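Page 42, continued from yesterday. The earlier attempt failed because a stray header line got pasted into the input along with the sequence. Redoing it now with the clean sequence only.
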Amino acid sequence: MSDLYLEAIEQARVYDVAIETPLELAPKLSARLHNEVLFKREDLQPVFSFKLRGAYNKIAQLTEAERTRGVICASAGNHAQGVALSSRKLGIKATIVMPHTTPEIKVKAVQRLGGNVVLFGDSYSDASGHAMELCKQNGMVFVHPYDDPAVIAGQGTIAEEMMRQYPGDLDAVFVPIGGGGLIAGIAVYLKAKSPNTKIIGVEPVDSAAMSQSIKTGHRITLDQVGIFADGVAVKTVGEHTFAMVQQYVDEIILVDTDEICAAIKDIYEDNRSIVEPAGALAVAALKKYVRQSGARGQLLAAINSGANMNFDRMRHVAERTEMGEGKEALFAVTIPERPGSFLDFCRIIGDRNITEFNYRMSSRHEAHVFAGISISDDDGEEAAALESAMKEAGLPTLNLHDNELAKLHVRHMVGGHCPLVENEVIYRFEFPERPGALLEFLTRAAGRWNISMFHYRNHAAAFGRVLAGVEVPPHERAEFEDYLDVLAYPYVNESDNPAYTTFLK
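This time it went through. Structure tokens are written below.
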């Protein structure tokens, strides 16, 4: 298999539309990490993503009869633009099926490139199923986003370029994983040409389909995938790609939202480019690898895979960057409701900067504080010391560093509990960003349960983040969760989350 892919990569047709992207030094990050860090700048491609390589290589190899039938794909972003541009270059009709939740900016980008956009469903799975139906009905050629040997070979040209640009052995290369097409192409080539180079894949902790598949020994399907790094939000990895990752990839590192946001900032500070969350995965993992392994003086490369960033999402990125860098600690602290207690609290904080402060009197005896505090380390020791100091002073304290509910919602809505609310249960949802999603939620409930609290946040993604409180008597809890299952919006019961019980209950 290796020899066949090597030949396919070396003969791949990508440069009619793609460019050879630079492998450039990241001087600031290199100095900070005490290693030589290189960025492979796939964010500089004409469609701002590596996806163009695989799409063009696949379509360019079609027979004349296949070209006449036209091509079809399902995608909510970068693959769609790659297929549209490749098809326009080759004079082929392209149909792109996209979910209704796709941001308008991406739909218009595909239309500008000549793609015929069909909107269907709320998710990639919905769009993919419809694309396959249209493919069968109309005889079009389906261009898979990752699980196709020609697509894999097209992505593998990145590794061929890297070997030309830096002939010596790289110590490690970090590659984002969605369905696996990118890492499969890069890994099969580098393992043949530079066998001492470690190939390290990267996934978000909430979209780790490849990592979990490798652990179980077979492909699994995730029930839900995280929506922040939507460019790698895949429930099931490819059949071809899974086998190749098993054989050629050394390790997979998982990173969280805060680490991704910090990596977006790192890339910006080195070259003033703003990559999308999936495009920053490799840098986030590279930093984690150095921190955990203690690597020094090594040559490390990260694939900056794409830059189709919606500007509105930058607000969320900016919020989470400080925590991702280990520069902000987040606490819920209960202080006595008496004169001087706030001063005592501030004395514990000392000369550290307070980044956020929400205060709410809970009773005549105590008050709750939601506090963000600047810290200077990234190993958690300073935050732990602060937490200990508060507890030693008799102040009940919760470290909210890993509490997603607190970071997404509670910090924006500290206010307390209405005494009239009874039997409240709390759920965190992902609502599809399409007209009627809220109406559908309310209509299906049909007035059976009262909504006692509702907080919505949009991050310019396919799904919005919702926190809802609902009055549900205990004997109706099972019926209510049956209703949620039928509704099919991803949800998490947060009724026992300490951030909720402290500030909102």
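Notes: The first strand starts at residue 23 and ends at 25.
Reminder to self: strip header lines before submitting.
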